[in-house]
Amino acid sequence: MPKVHNFGAGPAKLPEEVYEIMKNELTNFDGSSISLMEMSHRSKPYMKFNLEVQALVRRLLNVPDNYKILFLAGGGTAQFAAIPLNLMSRTGTADYVVTGDWSLKAAKEAKKYGKVNLVLPPTDRYVEIPDQSKWNLDPNASYVHICANETIHGVEFDFIPDTKGVPLVADMSSNIMSRKFDVSKFGVIYGGAQKNIGTAGVALAIVREDLLNQALPICPSLFDWTANAKAESILNTPPMFAIYVMGRVLEWVERNGGVAGMEERATKKANLIYGIIDASNGFYSAPVAKSARSKMNVPFRIGSPPNEDLEKEFLKGAEALNLIQLKGHRNVGGIRASIYNAVSYEEAEILAKYMKDFQNKYSK
Ligand code: PLP
Q1: Looking at 211, 227, 255, which one is the last position of a domain?
Q2: Atom 9 (ligand 1): residue with closest C-alpha?
Q3: What are the backbone angles phi and psi of residue 211, rounded to the nearest 5°?
Q4: Nearest ligand 1 atom, CA 100
Q5: Which residues are catalytic?
Q6: Quick one: which of 33, 90, 200, 236 could link to 142 by a disulfide (CB 3.0–4.6 Å)?
Q7: CA-wise closest residue to 349 among 333, 361, 337
Q8: Is 139 in the same domain as 280?
Q9: Whose CA is nearest to atom 15 of ligand 1?
Q10: Domain Aminotransferase class V: where (predicted)?
Q11: Is 76 in the pocket of ligand 1 (CB under 6 A)?
Q12: Is residue 4 in some structural domain?
């Protein structure tokens, strides 16, 4: 099989080493001679593994003791509902900082359970994170929600907002484990696993303990963080395979310099690709303001105004070289290079070379 370089936005590339480990373990989990997929979630090997993965998350992100680490079914989207269901009861209102389609979706879901205050004026062009002095925060909000990295628009926070004591809730689906940050500045951190930490179907949530025990009475048990925390994330049959993959990916992160190592690589890869765009004399353009450029998802256009035929040609040429899943999201068009943790610097170099060659061939 040809070697492909997968720049997909998610489900995204897994570290190659992890495939090798999984191949060997697929029919023999922890010496049991059966696969994890056929094993009771209450068996000793699984219960042990479940706690080991929690400990791994705690180590990698330096999670303080007063936070619970949860594995929750239903991916990131289920958490869009779980957040208001678990947190809205205090004041019945919440602040949403909408910087792209994902935070917009989260805000729309929250509206089903309480009042949502949009902190920023509505827009359909997400290319920046306005300065905090322009935010319309409600001091009475139960929480403030942000999306730390907008996967579709490539807009990433490079600072932790000051929410004046109101709990900060962050969707880190597409940048968790790619940069160091102070967990204690957040009330809740959550994300679907299928970009940087594994495969679809599970969300990781890190919840400060004082935010438990306040779910709305209508909150389904499965969405209730408190019930899940009490059950150590084995309230029902969990998405065991997705949690298993998460464990193996996180071990790989730990072996490769931890989150600091990932951050260093992410910065190098992002500098390389944005560098090509910035040096292209307008042949390539990145719509996002420099201060909000994502190190995980690099959306860009070709030509000014964007030339869709040339973009198609770019994608065709990329496929021919086995550089795959580079098409921009249908909502924004153009090209999007996702350079998550599992994408190596060498792979980013292959893409960078292709971008340069393409420009040389087609720029007038
Ligand atoms: N949040 C962000 C930033 C995402 O990129 C995605 C999916 O791509 C989601 C939430 C939704 O996650 P899921 O598909 O696991 O529900």
Answers
A1: 255
A2: 76
A3: -95, 0
A4: 3
A5: 102, 171, 195
A6: 90
A7: 337
A8: no
A9: 75
A10: 5-350
A11: yes
A12: no
Interval 273-281 mean pLDDT: 98
- Answer for the pair 341, 176: CB distance below 8 angstroms, yes or no: no
End-to-end CA distance of the chain: 37
The rounded Å distance from CA 32 to ligand 1 centre is 34
- Based on the fold, state whether residues 209 and 229 are members of the same structural domain: yes
Number of domains in the chain: 2
Residue at 20: amino acid letter: E
Distance (angstroms) between ligand 1 centre and the Cα of 5 equals 22
Give the pLDDT confidence of 144-182 residue by residue, as tens digits: 999 999 999 999 999 999 999 999 999 999 999 999 999
Which residues, in sequence order, are CB contacts of 270 under 8 Å at separation 6+?
A: 293, 294, 295, 298, 339
| 102 Cα to the center of ligand 1, angstroms | 7
The verdict on the CB of residue 247 being under 6 Å from ligand 1 is no
2 occurs within a structural domain = no
Question: Using one digit for the tens of pLDDT, what is the confidence trace for 305-326?
Answer: 999 999 999 999 999 999 999 9
**Res. 250: pLDDT tops 80:** yes
Question: Does the interface predicted TM-score (ipTM) exceed 0.85?
Answer: yes
